[in-house]
Amino acid sequence: MFITDIRKEFYDVVVNQRVALLVSSEIDALCACKILQALFHCDQVQYTLVPVTGWQDLGTAFLEHKEQFRCFVLINCGANVDLLETLQPEEDSIFFICDTHRPVDVVNVYNDTQVKLMIKQDDDLGVPSYDDIFRDEEEEGGNDSGNESDGGSEPSGKRRRYDEVYYAAAMVIFELAWVLTKDTKDMLWWAIIGLTDQLVHDKITHMKYVTDIATLQRHVSRHNHRNEDEDNSLSIDCMRISFEYDLRLALYQHWSLFESICNSSYTSCNFKLWSMHGQKKLQEFLADMGLPLKQVKQKFNSMDMSVKENLREVIEESSNKYGMKDIRIQTFGVHFGFKNHFLASDVVHATAALLESTEKDDSPGDNFIKALDCLSRSNLERLHGGIDLAKKKLMAIQQTVASCICTNLILSQGPFLYCYLLEGTPDVKLFSKPMALTLLCKYLLKAFVRSTRNKRCKLLPLIIAAPMDVEKRTVIVLGIPPESETSDKKNFFGRAFEKAAESTSSRTLHDHFDTSIIELKMEDRTKFLDALITLLS
Length: 537
Known about the structure:
One of its GO terms (molecular function) is single-stranded DNA binding. One of its GO terms (biological process) is DNA replication initiation. By secondary structure, the protein is an alpha/beta fold. The chain is built from 22 helices and 14 strands.
């Protein structure tokens, strides 16, 4: 059931219990977790934090903790399947779910006793009524248990159909802190990062982002106003959050301007930097700005103050001439003391790089702890380490996009575009991780739409496959909706993947909380694709 009063129905219930906190490996989830941890510290709530990467992990974590705990808080996992059927808990276990994945399973919505959904609701919910779902099943004569197995039957179709707008989990938990009057600047910063993560990884529309930014801006003003009276507002370890209308250039304040322009999808796709013509256009753009190449190619921190002063305006003016009308975007920045300045997107890229690091043989659990650490302002070294990793990742994505476009690796399969990264591709290990693959997929589709002359192809979604585990001979497959400004970001591939795997008996593993990502045996790739083409045609 939906929780309407988050303080009374959630926090007042868990504050006197031992809580198992199950958190998925996503940045928004990490931020929500940090806020909740801070609240638990305030009220001395005992909790155990368990990172979970997929459904198998969640099942194992639940089995290990179900004896000691009655109260489970699930962040960014658990809402889009029938949870009680999946976990088979005792009747006195309660699950509080704060999850951004859609669609929400309607059985969770109508379970009044054990499943409590902390999902912000809009007026037009479109939840099918209880009678519609469960009465129909009985009328079918009991032959449909409500599982998805009988693909075409009406009730099971209705069972899953509850799509609704995304709210960052971090924003939901921040609002709880605000209601409890325990919100701090750190918590507000984490909420901002959670929202920015959803924009960077393309989970929300630009319209929704702007609306949520306005909400957060009010909180920022409130906190800044509150601190004006304090003497230490300029102390060495103070923290200042500011609203900024900044550039869509990834990590440019921690890189050189030139490298940032080359490795940001927005500029790279607009200039078509994978072509000689694009490189020439970039040189013209830099000349138009009147910035010396020596300045543009050195670290941003080392640029002359005279150049830096009105840099954003200069870039914006030249960008308009080159058709990049929206190179600036509303965001937030933070100052820690005097010399550390980060934009919210910098932290998102750094945290993602740490969370999916392939550099050492660290377990997902180790990476989770490192990523969680880099969100603390006491751990700026770790954050800078994450930023260095993120630069390598962005360069790898850009090089892979260029090679895929130049070697025509993106094929039109009829109802969708398809790209397969071959085993020998550089950095292919990086793309066995869901967030890195999502970014690559998003950049690739943007680049393809810019470079193709085929109008029909511009309206197609993209499916990408990359080697996952060479020894087990598995690939990771991911689908994203068509590239368009008006898109509502709803992704229907999860259901299509399920059906295609079922109809061809392909050996797949649907372990990710995001249903549009699956793992598949290499040998089954061809028949799985053929089934998808038939299904979506």
